[in-house]
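Many introductory courses stop at the sequence. We go one step further.
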Amino acid sequence: MSDTALQTVANGPDDRAVRETIRRRVETAGTSFYWAMRMLPRDRRNGMYAIYAFCREVDDIADGDRPVEHKLADLAAWREEIGAIYAGQPRHVVARALHEPTQRYGLRREDFLAVIDGMEMDAREDIRAPNLATLDLYCARELRARSDISQCMSLAIRATLPIWSPSRLAAHCS
């Protein structure tokens, strides 16, 4: 985990400052997703910013120049932080930003852990041209998990529409 981003709940910024910090990180990343996310309603936008920031954090760890054992230790710390989110005690500023959307949209812990699993694969070896089995595993762990997180958040909004019942949402996102 990046030391500059680590904040404790006891002495960290308030929720508004956390959201603004995450928004600035997404904007500074220079991603075109930022402009699309700006169009979303505020709660959903903040949730998507937090998801993007999490994915960026763990991706930066995996792709960084540090030795493999340090990358794996940082990713293990993120695994613990995901547990802290679901225990209601996030410490890292990005995890604090994720806490509310995980509750509001029923985002699954398993999907965040699958992203970390994929990043661990990335940290251990160069997977630019893997065999088909490795590519499929990587996609299942990392890419599909990111998609599932975003879809469940989007579908939670649809649950308020007549055609999307809470049971239909639960069936899709479980």
